[in-house]
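Structure first, sequence second, as always.
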Protein backbone atom coordinates (compact mmCIF):
# COMPACT_ATOMS: atom_id res chain seq x y z
CA UNK A 1 0.00 0.00 0.00
CA UNK A 2 2.98 2.33 0.46
CA UNK A 3 4.43 4.31 -2.43
CA UNK A 4 7.91 3.27 -3.56
CA UNK A 5 10.91 5.18 -2.21
CA UNK A 6 12.82 6.86 -5.03
CA UNK A 7 15.38 8.93 -3.11
CA UNK A 8 18.81 7.96 -4.55
CA UNK A 9 20.53 8.91 -1.30
CA UNK A 10 18.63 6.24 0.65
CA UNK A 11 21.32 3.56 0.55
CA UNK A 12 19.62 1.06 2.87
CA UNK A 13 15.85 1.02 3.29
CA UNK A 14 13.32 -1.73 3.80
CA UNK A 15 14.24 -3.75 0.72
CA UNK A 16 16.57 -6.25 2.44
CA UNK A 17 15.09 -6.24 5.98
CA UNK A 18 18.39 -4.91 7.33
CA UNK A 19 19.02 -3.71 10.88
CA UNK A 20 18.96 0.04 10.22
CA UNK A 21 18.40 2.56 7.47
CA UNK A 22 21.34 4.39 5.91
CA UNK A 23 21.09 7.78 4.19
CA UNK A 24 23.95 9.31 2.24
CA UNK A 25 24.83 12.92 3.09
CA UNK A 26 27.96 13.20 0.94
CA UNK A 27 30.72 10.99 -0.45
CA UNK A 28 32.27 10.48 2.99
CA UNK A 29 29.32 10.63 5.37
CA UNK A 30 26.07 8.72 5.73
CA UNK A 31 23.59 8.61 8.59
CA UNK A 32 22.58 5.30 10.17
CA UNK A 33 19.19 5.47 11.87
CA UNK A 34 16.98 3.05 13.75
CA UNK A 35 14.17 2.80 16.29
CA UNK A 36 13.08 0.08 18.69
CA UNK A 37 10.88 -0.20 21.76
CA UNK A 38 10.30 -3.08 24.17
CA UNK A 39 8.45 -4.07 27.32
CA UNK A 40 10.37 -4.83 30.53
CA UNK A 41 12.38 -8.04 30.53
CA UNK A 42 13.54 -7.69 34.15
CA UNK A 43 11.80 -6.26 37.22
CA UNK A 44 14.43 -3.66 38.12
CA UNK A 45 13.69 -0.47 36.10
CA UNK A 46 17.29 0.78 36.19
CA UNK A 47 18.59 -2.50 34.76
CA UNK A 48 15.80 -2.61 32.20
CA UNK A 49 16.75 0.89 31.05
CA UNK A 50 20.30 -0.27 30.41
CA UNK A 51 19.14 -3.35 28.53
CA UNK A 52 16.69 -1.39 26.38
CA UNK A 53 19.32 1.17 25.41
CA UNK A 54 21.90 -1.49 24.55
CA UNK A 55 19.30 -3.30 22.46
CA UNK A 56 18.31 -0.18 20.50
CA UNK A 57 21.86 1.06 19.90
CA UNK A 58 22.91 -2.37 18.63
CA UNK A 59 21.32 -1.86 15.22
CA UNK A 60 23.82 0.88 14.41
CA UNK A 61 26.71 -1.35 15.47
CA UNK A 62 25.35 -4.15 13.26
CA UNK A 63 25.71 -1.89 10.21
CA UNK A 64 29.32 -1.03 11.12
CA UNK A 65 28.35 2.48 12.21
CA UNK A 66 29.11 4.68 15.19
CA UNK A 67 26.01 5.72 17.20
CA UNK A 68 25.91 9.36 18.23
CA UNK A 69 22.47 10.82 18.99
CA UNK A 70 19.23 9.42 20.40
CA UNK A 71 15.73 10.28 21.58
CA UNK A 72 13.84 8.35 24.24
CA UNK A 73 10.44 6.91 23.41
CA UNK A 74 8.44 5.89 26.50
CA UNK A 75 5.06 4.40 27.12
CA UNK A 76 4.14 4.64 30.81
CA UNK A 77 0.95 4.20 32.87
CA UNK A 78 -0.71 7.48 33.83
CA UNK A 79 -0.75 6.44 37.49
CA UNK A 80 2.75 4.91 37.36
CA UNK A 81 5.48 5.59 39.88
CA UNK A 82 7.61 8.58 38.77
CA UNK A 83 10.64 7.13 40.58
CA UNK A 84 10.37 3.96 38.51
CA UNK A 85 10.26 6.07 35.34
CA UNK A 86 13.26 8.06 36.50
CA UNK A 87 15.28 4.94 37.31
CA UNK A 88 14.51 3.45 33.90
CA UNK A 89 15.56 6.61 32.06
CA UNK A 90 18.68 6.88 34.20
CA UNK A 91 19.71 3.35 33.21
CA UNK A 92 19.11 4.15 29.54
CA UNK A 93 21.05 7.39 29.77
CA UNK A 94 24.06 5.79 31.45
CA UNK A 95 24.22 2.99 28.86
CA UNK A 96 23.91 5.54 26.06
CA UNK A 97 26.76 7.55 27.57
CA UNK A 98 28.88 4.40 27.66
CA UNK A 99 28.26 4.07 23.93
CA UNK A 100 29.15 7.72 23.29
CA UNK A 101 25.51 8.54 22.52
CA UNK A 102 23.86 11.81 23.57
CA UNK A 103 20.16 11.57 24.44
CA UNK A 104 18.62 14.87 23.36
CA UNK A 105 15.13 14.39 24.77
CA UNK A 106 12.24 12.24 23.64
CA UNK A 107 8.52 11.59 23.78
CA UNK A 108 6.34 9.99 26.45
CA UNK A 109 2.79 8.68 26.04
CA UNK A 110 0.32 6.93 28.34
CA UNK A 111 0.03 3.14 27.99
CA UNK A 112 -1.35 0.38 30.24
CA UNK A 113 2.09 -1.28 30.37
CA UNK A 114 5.60 0.12 30.42
CA UNK A 115 7.41 0.41 27.09
CA UNK A 116 10.82 1.96 26.51
CA UNK A 117 13.11 2.37 23.56
CA UNK A 118 15.25 4.79 21.59
CA UNK A 119 15.50 6.27 18.18
CA UNK A 120 19.22 6.29 17.40
CA UNK A 121 21.25 8.11 14.75
CA UNK A 122 24.84 7.25 13.98
CA UNK A 123 27.30 7.88 11.21
CA UNK A 124 29.29 5.79 8.75
CA UNK A 125 31.34 6.12 5.59
CA UNK A 126 28.93 5.20 2.78
CA UNK A 127 31.61 2.98 1.24
CA UNK A 128 32.08 0.97 4.44
CA UNK A 129 28.54 -0.11 5.29
CA UNK A 130 28.23 -3.71 6.50
CA UNK A 131 24.83 -4.97 5.38
CA UNK A 132 23.02 -8.29 5.56
CA UNK A 133 23.26 -8.80 1.78
CA UNK A 134 27.02 -9.20 1.34
CA UNK A 135 27.54 -12.80 2.45
CA UNK A 136 29.60 -14.88 0.02
CA UNK A 137 30.02 -18.64 -0.42
CA UNK A 138 32.94 -19.87 1.66
CA UNK A 139 32.52 -17.20 4.36
CA UNK A 140 32.29 -18.27 7.99
CA UNK A 141 29.67 -17.12 10.54
CA UNK A 142 30.69 -16.01 14.03
CA UNK A 143 28.25 -15.41 16.91
CA UNK A 144 29.30 -13.09 19.73
CA UNK A 145 26.69 -13.92 22.42
CA UNK A 146 24.89 -17.13 23.45
CA UNK A 147 21.26 -17.71 22.48
CA UNK A 148 18.37 -18.61 24.78
CA UNK A 149 17.67 -15.16 26.23
CA UNK A 150 13.95 -15.17 25.44
CA UNK A 151 13.43 -18.53 27.10
CA UNK A 152 15.35 -17.49 30.22
CA UNK A 153 13.32 -14.28 30.46
CA UNK A 154 10.11 -16.28 30.11
CA UNK A 155 11.15 -18.37 33.10
CA UNK A 156 11.41 -15.12 35.07
CA UNK A 157 8.04 -13.83 33.86
CA UNK A 158 6.41 -17.19 34.62
CA UNK A 159 7.76 -17.18 38.18
CA UNK A 160 9.94 -20.24 37.56
CA UNK A 161 13.36 -18.63 37.61
CA UNK A 162 14.36 -19.93 41.04
CA UNK A 163 16.05 -22.94 39.45
CA UNK A 164 18.09 -20.98 36.87
CA UNK A 165 20.88 -18.43 37.11
CA UNK A 166 19.72 -15.34 35.25
CA UNK A 167 22.74 -13.17 36.09
CA UNK A 168 24.85 -14.14 33.03
CA UNK A 169 21.86 -13.41 30.81
CA UNK A 170 21.24 -10.02 32.41
CA UNK A 171 24.91 -9.11 32.08
CA UNK A 172 24.97 -10.13 28.41
CA UNK A 173 21.85 -8.09 27.62
CA UNK A 174 23.50 -5.00 29.10
CA UNK A 175 26.71 -5.51 27.12
CA UNK A 176 27.11 -3.25 24.11
CA UNK A 177 27.98 -4.77 20.74
CA UNK A 178 30.51 -1.98 20.23
CA UNK A 179 33.64 -4.12 20.53
CA UNK A 180 32.24 -6.74 18.18
CA UNK A 181 31.36 -4.04 15.67
CA UNK A 182 34.87 -2.57 15.78
CA UNK A 183 36.36 -6.05 15.40
CA UNK A 184 34.26 -6.95 12.37
CA UNK A 185 35.23 -3.72 10.64
CA UNK A 186 38.91 -4.38 11.27
CA UNK A 187 38.60 -7.96 10.01
CA UNK A 188 36.83 -7.08 6.76
CA UNK A 189 33.42 -8.60 7.45
CA UNK A 190 31.27 -9.14 4.37
CA UNK A 191 27.92 -9.08 6.21
CA UNK A 192 26.42 -8.89 9.69
CA UNK A 193 23.17 -8.73 11.62
CA UNK A 194 22.29 -8.53 15.28
CA UNK A 195 20.26 -11.39 16.72
CA UNK A 196 17.14 -9.99 18.37
CA UNK A 197 13.40 -10.61 18.08
CA UNK A 198 13.42 -12.98 15.09
CA UNK A 199 15.90 -15.29 16.77
CA UNK A 200 19.08 -16.80 15.39
CA UNK A 201 17.62 -18.62 12.42
CA UNK A 202 15.04 -15.92 11.64
CA UNK A 203 17.65 -13.20 11.21
CA UNK A 204 19.91 -15.57 9.27
CA UNK A 205 17.03 -16.45 6.91
CA UNK A 206 16.74 -12.73 6.18
CA UNK A 207 20.48 -12.64 5.45
CA UNK A 208 20.25 -15.71 3.22
CA UNK A 209 17.43 -14.13 1.24
CA UNK A 210 19.11 -10.73 1.00
CA UNK A 211 22.46 -12.23 -0.09
CA UNK A 212 20.91 -14.95 -2.29
CA UNK A 213 23.02 -17.63 -0.62
CA UNK A 214 22.46 -20.62 1.63
CA UNK A 215 23.53 -20.89 5.25
CA UNK A 216 24.66 -24.02 7.06
CA UNK A 217 24.69 -23.90 10.86
CA UNK A 218 26.57 -26.45 12.94
CA UNK A 219 24.41 -27.07 16.00
CA UNK A 220 27.26 -28.30 18.17
CA UNK A 221 29.09 -24.99 17.72
CA UNK A 222 26.20 -22.64 18.57
CA UNK A 223 26.67 -21.09 22.05
CA UNK A 224 23.59 -21.19 24.27
CA UNK A 225 22.51 -20.92 27.88
CA UNK A 226 22.24 -24.55 28.96
CA UNK A 227 19.56 -23.75 31.50
CA UNK A 228 17.35 -22.52 28.66
CA UNK A 229 16.99 -26.12 27.50
CA UNK A 230 15.96 -27.10 31.02
CA UNK A 231 13.35 -24.34 31.03
CA UNK A 232 11.92 -25.55 27.71
CA UNK A 233 11.86 -29.14 28.95
CA UNK A 234 9.81 -27.94 31.94
CA UNK A 235 7.18 -26.58 29.56
CA UNK A 236 8.00 -22.87 29.89
CA UNK A 237 7.59 -21.78 26.27
CA UNK A 238 8.23 -18.19 25.24
CA UNK A 239 5.90 -16.74 22.56
CA UNK A 240 8.76 -15.74 20.27
CA UNK A 241 9.47 -19.37 19.43
CA UNK A 242 5.96 -19.92 18.09
CA UNK A 243 5.97 -16.59 16.24
CA UNK A 244 9.31 -17.23 14.57
CA UNK A 245 8.55 -20.85 13.72
CA UNK A 246 5.35 -19.72 12.01
CA UNK A 247 7.28 -17.07 10.08
CA UNK A 248 10.51 -18.87 9.16
CA UNK A 249 10.13 -22.64 9.61
CA UNK A 250 9.50 -23.20 5.88
CA UNK A 251 12.94 -21.67 5.22
CA UNK A 252 14.80 -23.68 7.88
CA UNK A 253 15.82 -27.34 7.65
CA UNK A 254 16.57 -28.62 11.16
CA UNK A 255 17.28 -32.15 9.92
CA UNK A 256 17.96 -34.53 12.80
CA UNK A 257 18.36 -31.80 15.44
CA UNK A 258 16.25 -32.87 18.41
CA UNK A 259 13.94 -30.83 20.58
CA UNK A 260 14.24 -28.65 22.55
CA UNK A 261 17.37 -27.29 20.80
CA UNK A 262 15.57 -27.27 17.45
CA UNK A 263 13.08 -24.87 19.06
CA UNK A 264 15.61 -22.78 20.95
CA UNK A 265 17.25 -21.59 17.72
CA UNK A 266 13.91 -19.95 16.83
CA UNK A 267 13.65 -18.15 20.18
CA UNK A 268 13.62 -14.37 20.41
CA UNK A 269 16.73 -12.69 21.79
CA UNK A 270 16.76 -9.35 23.60
CA UNK A 271 20.00 -7.42 23.03
CA UNK A 272 21.60 -10.48 21.47
CA UNK A 273 24.99 -10.71 19.85
CA UNK A 274 26.19 -10.00 16.34
CA UNK A 275 26.24 -12.72 13.71
CA UNK A 276 29.31 -11.73 11.71
CA UNK A 277 30.00 -13.16 8.25
CA UNK A 278 33.68 -13.06 7.51
CA UNK A 279 36.28 -14.65 5.21
CA UNK A 280 38.06 -17.55 6.86
CA UNK A 281 41.37 -15.68 6.79
CA UNK A 282 39.79 -12.83 8.80
CA UNK A 283 38.76 -14.91 11.81
CA UNK A 284 42.03 -14.49 13.69
CA UNK A 285 42.03 -10.75 13.05
CA UNK A 286 38.50 -10.54 14.44
CA UNK A 287 39.53 -12.50 17.54
CA UNK A 288 42.60 -10.31 18.08
CA UNK A 289 40.51 -7.12 18.00
CA UNK A 290 37.60 -8.55 20.03
CA UNK A 291 40.06 -9.90 22.62
CA UNK A 292 38.10 -13.10 23.20
CA UNK A 293 37.39 -16.29 21.32
CA UNK A 294 34.17 -16.33 19.34
CA UNK A 295 32.67 -19.58 18.02
CA UNK A 296 32.37 -20.20 14.30
CA UNK A 297 28.80 -21.50 14.08
CA UNK A 298 28.49 -22.17 10.37
CA UNK A 299 29.33 -21.16 6.85
CA UNK A 300 27.92 -19.70 3.64
CA UNK A 301 27.18 -21.88 0.63
CA UNK A 302 25.90 -21.34 -2.90
CA UNK A 303 23.48 -24.24 -2.38
CA UNK A 304 19.82 -23.89 -1.23
CA UNK A 305 19.80 -20.04 -1.55
CA UNK A 306 17.46 -18.17 0.76
CA UNK A 307 17.37 -20.91 3.38
CA UNK A 308 19.15 -22.11 6.51
CA UNK A 309 20.17 -25.73 7.09
CA UNK A 310 21.10 -26.93 10.57
CA UNK A 311 23.41 -29.95 10.89
CA UNK A 312 24.86 -31.84 13.88
Amino acid sequence: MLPPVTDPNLLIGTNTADDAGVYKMNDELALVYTIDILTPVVSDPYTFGKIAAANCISDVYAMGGDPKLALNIVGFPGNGDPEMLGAMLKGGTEKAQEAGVTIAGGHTFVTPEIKYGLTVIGYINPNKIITNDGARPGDRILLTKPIGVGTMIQALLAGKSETVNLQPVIEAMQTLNRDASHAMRAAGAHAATDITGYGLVGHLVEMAEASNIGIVLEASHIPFYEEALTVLTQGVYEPGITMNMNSFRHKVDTGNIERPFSELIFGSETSGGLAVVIPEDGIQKFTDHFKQDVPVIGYITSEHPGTVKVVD
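Margin note: Residues 91 and 157 are 21 Å apart (CA to CA).
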